[in-house]
Amino acid sequence: MKTLYVEQTVDKIGEVVELYGWVDSKRDHKKIVFIDLRDRTGTVQIVGDERFKRLSTEDVVYIKGLVKKRPEKLINPKLKTGTIEIETKEIKVLNKTQPLPIPVNTDGHDVDEEVRLKYRYLDLRRPRMYKNLAFRSKFIDLIRQYLFKEGFLEIETPILSETTPEGARDFIVPSRLQPGKFYALPQSPQQYKQLFMVGGIEKYFQIARCFRDEDPRADRAYGEFTQLDLEMSFVQREDVMKLTENLFIEVYEKLKVPIKQKPFPIFTYAEAIKKFGADKFDLRTEEEKKKNIQAFAWVVDFPFFEKTPEGGWTFTHNPFSAPKPEFMEDLFNKKNVGSILTTQYDLVCNGYEVGGGSIRNHTPEGLKAVFEIMGLSEEEINLKFGHMIEALGYGAPPHGGIAPGIDRLLTCITGETSIREVIAYPMTSGGRTSVMKAPSVVKEEKLKELGIKI
């Protein structure tokens, strides 16, 4: 098993080490041949003989050699390992490579994205891509550490579920055991996490995979994305905002990512529209953008409802939200609907909405009133949301939560121009999977088994 990484060799001067990795480059000086050996931590110069002549870049090799200090004039200050080199004692070629279909020794921005995603497993060899994924791993780890410290439980929710009114199109999955019926992939774990609160969990979180059939953008991946999903009982709006803010301040400080303003400034929706012309805005100066400073802000006091093209009412964010307490009577009486403000709070960073949440309607009467304002009949309400209304009637505590987007936050931190640069295997802009050939045609017998005709 590999026990030593390239970056650790600087501490092994005078020792014989065993290294595994890829040939990053080769320099042939006739009797002496140099290669740069690369693993996920960096590259180191290997000094070899004529045996190295048969090597090609991206061959997978094992090297056993003596770590030696480089002469002063040959030190390369641009490399972590620039003060040393390895004098080869033994070499084994573990796998010869075919010519690569894409170069992996550039940052990749010069390569067509569709081609990069087709060969994503090669694209990930780029130091930039590895750095993004390693940073993502550390980012999520620090989030988990903080929430465990605060007494949260990490609990998974189902992937096969029921279609929900999240505002986007669902991905649906046919049921073989119940022909003609379909599951939906979750747009979010919204209902399940609220049901956890009814179940007495009190503090829940999950690094959740979510699925929405939305058109792709540079800041929104098609098909699937990852969010930090959390919910808490016995809280008010300010409690959830404070916990979320403290979480990100601690995580960003540990990662040495600068934040413009602490505590985060708070704008009402009306103030944001008046001052910025939108509820997503960038508070940074041009100089702060160059320094990659992260500018967070909260937006609160959103209208609960907005008009539909048909003249009815629909929710602006989430039908499960509660109105602000002073508007609860209007909700029950279905009066002044356009003036009702919700407990929704959105987290904005560098011009993007990076998270949103609310205090929930924790009584059956309150939730039912929302759906009645939206024009749903008693039968529709019971069919689609009867389980939630029933559950809230069994002693549901006041509760609220939030769901910051992991992918979008990482795009802001890394300064990448596309969210796909911080996801290991994202969909293409045309909605095809990386590497694999999905969506694809399904054989007739499989469709028949599912009771589907095309």
What value does the Rg take, in angstroms?
A: 27 Å
Order of adjacent strands in the largest pleated sheet: 6-9-10-17-16-15-12-11
Mean pLDDT: 95
Tell me, what's the shape? elongated
Low-confidence spans: pLDDT under 50, at least 5 residues? none
CATH architecture designation of the largest domain? 2-Layer Sandwich
Total beta-strand segments: 17
Report on this model:
This protein is of the alpha+beta class. It has two domains: 6-95, OB fold (Dihydrolipoamide Acetyltransferase, E2P); 117-302 and 344-362 and 397-422, 2-Layer Sandwich (BirA Bifunctional Protein, domain 2). 26% of the residues lie in helices and 24% in strands. The chain is built from twelve helices and 17 strands. An eight-stranded mixed beta sheet has the order 6-9-10-17-16-15-12-11, sandwiched between helices. The protein has a five-stranded mixed β-barrel with strand order 1-2-3-5-4. A hairpin with a 5-residue loop joins strand 13 and strand 14. The protein is elongated, with a radius of gyration of 27 Å. The two termini are 51 Å apart. 32% of the residues are buried.
Topology overview:
Layout: E1 16-29, E2 32-39, E3 42-48, E4 60-69, E5 84-95, H1 113-118, H2 120-123, H3 127-149, E6 153-154, E7 172-174, E8 182-184, H4 190-198, E9 203-212, E10 223-233, H5 237-254, E11 266-268, H6 269-276, H7 286-290, E12 296-300, E13 305-307, E14 313-315, H8 328-333, E15 345-349, E16 352-359, H9 364-373, H10 378-392, E17 399-402, H11 406-414, H12 444-449
Parallel strand pairs: 3-5, 6-9, 11-12
Antiparallel strand pairs: 1-2, 1-4, 2-3, 4-5, 7-8, 9-10, 10-17, 12-15, 13-14, 15-16, 16-17
Helix pairs in contact: 3-5, 9-10
